[in-house]
Every structure is written in structure tokens, then in C-alpha cells.
UniProtKB/TrEMBL annotation:
The keyword DNA repair does not apply. This is Transglutaminase-like putative cysteine protease. GO terms for biological process: proteolysis. Transmembrane segments: none annotated. It comes from Sphingomonas pseudosanguinis. Pfam families: Transglut_core. SUPFAM superfamilies: Cysteine proteinases.
Length: 259
């Protein structure tokens, strides 16, 4: 799968601020960058830093009055899609230490408050069968509704309302998976067919020794998702983190299949 990605960001600032951008598709074993360019208009230097878990990269930008950035890329994706149902369970004690943060509650994924629900609703299931059941539950119980959540909405809020956007779907699935002792992390990504076109958020579940991309909204398949960054929740994968205040002027994201 080859994807064409075009991103345009234009913001004004009320005062000078440091900005952390995370909009570049990551170079990985199962996706590589055929072409890529990032242009940022700034009177100051731009510094690249590694993304969470060493996946992808972020850029530090200093903006005085405005931020304008343009990103273009052609990404080639060659990622196998595995049937979750048949994957075995891994006891928590046998998991590598790097997975521990993805078993624990985080700011937007209060997995500890969902453990009782998971035990009652999905008791008897384990491993991939349990993971698949959680994905199906989120996909069928949730209603996608733009504007139904805010930046402070958590997985528990979404569990109660049953509505949200991709960020909320990812948070809820990640929280449920962690409550089921399945390591899970949030992923920022690009994907074709996202409606409305925008930055996309999905989940990754760790099963049988590797991470598996899952989009509970059903808008994208694992083999057509261009991963940007990973983390515990939206705190780590935000496309832009502003240490100050900014106002949106214009923003657009376009992702097209090339073959």
C-alpha cells in the first residue's frame, strides 16, 4: 500500500511559545518513506528529537507570533494483518519490562476503574480471543460523533457516554485492554478514508510477542495505516503540544491511496 500525505497547519499565537510537533510518518520495518518533506516557518532553529519508545520523531519549534508548517510524504506500507482470535495469552510476569507502562493506568486511560467490568463481561476469555472481543465491543457499542468530546475527555467518560471520535475509541480500547492485562498503547497515524479527514488515532495491542494495530472505528485497516507516534495516551501522541496559547487559523490533512 502506498499513501500520499499532505498536511497544512496555520496558527496564531498570543505570545511567544515553544511548540512540539509530531506530524511526520515514522520510518519502520513495515513502513518506509519513499518521499518526505517538512517545512516550518520560524525565525528560530528547529530541533528534532526522538518520539516515544524511539518510534518516529518530534520537532521543537519556537514561534513568536504564528506557526505555519507543511508536510508531504509518500509512505509505503507492507504490514501483515494477523487474526487476533488465534493469538495466545502472555502472563504479565513473562512480559518485557518495556511493556509495564502499557499495562498501567494513565491520565486518559483509567484502566483500573474498568477491571470489574472486564472480569464480569469477558470472564473466561484470554489472549487474542479476549482482545478481539474487546475490539468488537468498542466497535459495536460506540457511536462516532464529531464534537461529542473534548480534550479532557477520558476513557471512563467515553465508557459512560458511548460516543466520541477516534481519540475516544482508542482511549477506551486501550483502557479495556490494560484492564484485561493486555499491554496497549495509543497511536497517532494517517489513514485514507478517515471521515472527516484529519489526524487519526488508533490502538496497538501487544499479543504473541509483537504489537498489533487496531482501529476500533472501523475506518482503516492495519495494512493501510501510516504510524506517526506511540504513547500511553493522547498526552504522548498529540500532533501539536503548545507550551503557551495558540489560535487555529487553518488546518488540513489529506491522505490518498496511490495503489
Amino acid at each position: 500500500m502506498r499513501l500520499s500525505i499532505e498536511v497544512s497547519l496555520d496558527y496564531t499565537l498570543t505570545a511567544p511559545a515553544d511548540i512540539l510537533l509530531q506530524i511526520e510518518a515514522a520510518a519502520m520495518a513495515d513502513q518506509w518513506l519513499e518521499e518526505q518533506s517538512l517545512t516550518i516557518w520560524s525565525d528560530h532553529g528547529v530541533t528534532a528529537v526522538p518520539g516515544e519508545d524511539g518510534i518516529g520523531q518530534r520537532c521543537w519549534v519556537r514561534a513568536d507570533h504564528a506557526l505555519s508548517a507543511r508536510y508531504k510524504a509518500i509512505v509505503v506500507i507492507d504490514r501483515p494483518v494477523h487474526d487476533l482470535h488465534v493469538l495466545p495469552a502472555t502472563p504479565a510476569r513473562a512480559m518485557p519490562g518495556v511493556l509495564i507502562p502499557y499495562l498501567l493506568p494513565s491520565r486518559y486511560c483509567e484502566s483500573d476503574k474498568l477491571e470489574g467490568f472486564v472480569r464480569a463481561r469477558f470472564g473466561g476469555l484470554s489472549g487474542g480471543a479476549l482482545a478481539a472481543a474487546l475490539v468488537d465491543w468498542v466497535a459495536t457499542r460506540m457511536t462516532y460523533r464529531a464534537g461529542s468530546s473534548q480534550g479532557v475527555t477520558t476513557a471512563l467518560d467515553t465508557f459512560a457516554s458511548r460516543t466520541g471520535v477516534c481519540r475516544d475509541y482508542a482511549h477506551l480500547l486501550v483502557a479495556l485492554a490494560r484492564a484485561a492485562e493486555i499491554p496497549a498503547r495509543c497511536v497517532s497515524a494517517y489513514a485514507p478514508g478517515v471521515d472527516p479527514p484529519d489526524f487519526h488515532a488508533v490502538a496497538e495491542l501487544w499479543l504473541d510477542g509483537r504489537w498489533h494495530l487496531v482501529d476500533a472505528t472501523g475506518m482503516a485497516r492495519a495494512d493501510e495505516i501510516a504510524l506517526v507516534g506511540v504513547g500511553r495516551d493522547a498526552t504522548d501522541i498529540a500532533f501539536m503540544t503548545i507550551f503557551g496559547e495558540a489560535q487555529l487559523c487553518e488546518q488540513s490533512v489529506r491522505v490518498d491511496r496511490l495503489d
